[in-house]
């Protein structure tokens, strides 16, 4: 929940959606583990009078409830403070990448503590909106009235899937940690190939399920991207919907972004982007030449994001092409070391930063010409939306939210004034290369076309307002209103 804690797009969504809902008159109260990053963030955090224990693993484990607010709003955020579980270096994994071994216990505890906290705070809940596997137990608790809390008989649950590949799968003997009866450990509810599956639990028990784009909502009901849960998801029928994420326009606005050396808008993007590009080239130690296209990538270095296409392309084009790359990411050590090697060999062409750095992310969005996002699958994706707003033309694989937000520049879409980027359908090096080549050709040889594509993207409205309205529709439908 930006700016409290973030590992990826889920943080952007959870930091912006409650505020957008509030603007539309829908009051939200948020719950988050008291992660170390939050305690260190400098945000004002208050103690509350509430401290309680949860009985887990034959122990009464104590926690306190802390309180803060999402900056710039009156949205209350309650933090479940249990330092042994949550005051750690990472959120879900150690900095080296290994998952915390007690994740099932940590997040079972979290969900149970949230249920207890709602009761103690005496909150009147219409909808409990939970996200991803970490909170998949909450819909199950509500449906089964776990803990016999009175608030549960009024509330409905909506569970949102941000990424079906991360399921929170644990061995069956973790089942008692959840506090759920063993009778729910069956293939139609919490069990999955002999294991406990917390995302499946959320999907099965929630009153409604959503995911973060309409295309992904369809893709996950099919075997190819269904990660083994396709038939369960297909079984949810009309109760599974896709709502595209929005852009937090406070944080991501080229005309006021404090991270940028020069602000710009659609009126003066040519000079504005040129200044940002010069600075980016300088920051990366590359030649400051306006004519050399800069291709940007900001991404977790995970298989999902298409690194098995990106790395071969970098190798293939390194000698042949006069291009510059601005790459920011962290993740898979195997790809990281390859990127380091390429950066050492081609310092004038490859700017590679293997860190997590908000400021650099903003500067790449503003300073590159083309933004590459060849994800194998992409539930929604936020960086292509930031790129559109920052006048960087996205080149994307036609999947999930990328397909729903990027319109390929063809003669028809250009004529209709809708083209805002370039897309390729087949997940292969050849197709990606062809789409990128189309973008590079337009950049170099067809400036009118390029300007039109840039301006179309910059003028689109991907702010949260529209998406938050769709969530409210979903909440109302779930409440039978
Ligand atoms: P995902 O959540 O799958 O990683 P999204 O495109 O939805 O993908 O969101 C990624 C978010 O994380 C964006 O806000 C992006 O700027 C940010 N991000 C990813 N990697 C880095 C990094 N190395 N440094 C800074 N921000 C990053
Ligand atoms: C996930 C997805 C990404 C999405 C983000 C926020 O991390 O991989 O596509 O944009 O969640 O919903």
Task: Give an overview of the whole structure.
The protein folds into 2 domains: 8-246 and 465-478, Rossmann fold; 269-461, Glycogen Phosphorylase B (Rossmann fold). The strands form 4 sheets. It has a 6-stranded parallel β-sheet, with helices on both faces. It contains 19 helices and 17 strands. It starts with 8 loop residues before the first helix and ends with a helix. α5 (137-144) crosses α7 (198-205) and α11 (307-320) runs parallel beside α12 (333-345). By secondary structure, it is of the alpha/beta class. Residues 8-10, 12, 298-300, 328-330, 356-358, 361, 380-383 line the site of adenosine-5'-diphosphate. Residues 8-10, 13, 162-163, 212, 245, 378-382, 401 line the site of alpha-D-glucopyranose.
Can you give me a brief rundown of this structure?
This protein has 481 residues and is an alpha/beta fold.
Helix/strand layout:
Layout: H1 9-23, E1 29-33, H2 36-39, E2 46-56, E3 59-69, E4 76-81, H3 83-86, H4 103-121, E5 127-131, H5 137-144, E6 156-161, E7 169-170, H6 175-178, E8 191-192, E9 195-197, H7 198-205, E10 208-211, H8 214-219, H9 230-234, E11 240-242, H10 269-283, E12 294-301, H11 307-320, E13 324-331, H12 333-345, E14 350-353, H13 358-367, E15 370-373, H14 383-389, E16 393-397, H15 400-405, H16 411-415, E17 422-424, H17 429-445, H18 447-459, H19 464-478
Parallel strand pairs: 1-4, 5-6, 6-10, 10-11, 12-13, 12-15, 13-14, 15-16, 16-17
Antiparallel strand pairs: 2-3, 3-4, 7-9, 8-9
Helix pairs in contact: 1-19, 5-7, 10-13, 11-12, 17-18
Oligomer: single chain
Helix/sheet category: alpha/beta
The overall pLDDT, averaged over residues, is: 97
Please give the largest β-sheet: 6 strands, parallel
Task: List each distinct ligand once.
Answer: adenosine-5'-diphosphate, alpha-D-glucopyranose
Strand order of the largest sheet: 14-13-12-15-16-17
């Amino acid at each position: 929940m930006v700016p409290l804690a973030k590992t990826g797009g889920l943080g952007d969504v959870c930091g912006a959606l409650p505020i957008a809902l509030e603007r539309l008159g829908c009051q939200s109260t948020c719950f988050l583990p008291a992660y170390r990053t939050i305690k260190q963030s400098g945000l004002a955090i208050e103690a509350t009078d509430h401290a309680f224990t949860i009985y887990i693993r034959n122990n009464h484990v104590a926690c306190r409830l802390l309180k803060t607010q999402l900056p710039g709003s009156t949205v209350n955020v309650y933090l479940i403070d249990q330092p042994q579980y949550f005051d750690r270096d990472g959120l879900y994994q150690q900095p080296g990448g290994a998952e915390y071994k007690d994740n099932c216990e940590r997040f079972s505890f979290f969900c149970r503590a949230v249920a207890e906290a709602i009761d103690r705070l005496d909150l009147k809940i219409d909808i409990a909106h939970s996200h991803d596997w970490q909170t998949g137990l909450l819909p199950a608790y509500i449906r089964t009235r776990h803990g016999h809390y009175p608030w549960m008989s009024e509330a409905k649950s909506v569970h949102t899937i941000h990424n079906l590949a991360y399921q929170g799968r644990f061995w069956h003997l973790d089942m008692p940690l959840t506090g759920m009866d063993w009778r729910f450990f069956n293939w139609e509810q919490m069990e999955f190939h002999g294991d406990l599956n917390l995302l499946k639990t959320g999907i099965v028990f929630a009153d409604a399920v959503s995911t973060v784009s309409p295309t992904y909502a369809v893709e996950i009901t099919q075997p190819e991207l269904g990660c083994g849960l396709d038939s369960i998801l297909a079984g949810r029928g009309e109760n599974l919907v896709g709502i595209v994420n929005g852009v937090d326009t406070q944080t991501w606005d080229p005309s006021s972004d404090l991270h940028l050396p020069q602000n710009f808008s659609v009126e003066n993007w040519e000079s504005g982007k040129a200044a940002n590009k010069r600075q980016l080239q300088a920051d990366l130690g590359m030649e400051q030449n306006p004519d050399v296209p800069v291709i940007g990538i900001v991404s977790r270095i995970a298989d999902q994001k298409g690194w098995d296409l990106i790395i071969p392309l970098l190798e293939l084009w390194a000698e042949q092409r006069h291009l510059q790359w601005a790459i920011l990411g962290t993740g898979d050590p195997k790809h990281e070391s390859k990127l380091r090697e390429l950066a050492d060999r081609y310092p004038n062409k490859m700017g590679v930063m293997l860190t997590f750095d908000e400021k650099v992310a903003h500067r790449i969005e503003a300073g590159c010409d083309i933004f590459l996002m060849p994800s194998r699958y992409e539930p929604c994706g936020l960086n292509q939306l930031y790129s559109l707003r920052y006048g960087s033309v996205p080149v994307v694989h036609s999947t999930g939210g990328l397909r729903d937000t990027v319109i390929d520049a063809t003669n028809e879409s250009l004529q209709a004034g809708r083209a805002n980027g370039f897309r390729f359908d087949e997940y292969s090096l050849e197709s990606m290369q062809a789409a990128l080549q189309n973008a590079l050709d337009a950049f170099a040889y067809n400036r009118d076309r390029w300007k039109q594509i840039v301006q179309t993207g910059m003028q689109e409205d991907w702010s949260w307002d529209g998406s938050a309205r769709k969530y409210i529709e979903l909440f109302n439908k779930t409440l039978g209103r």
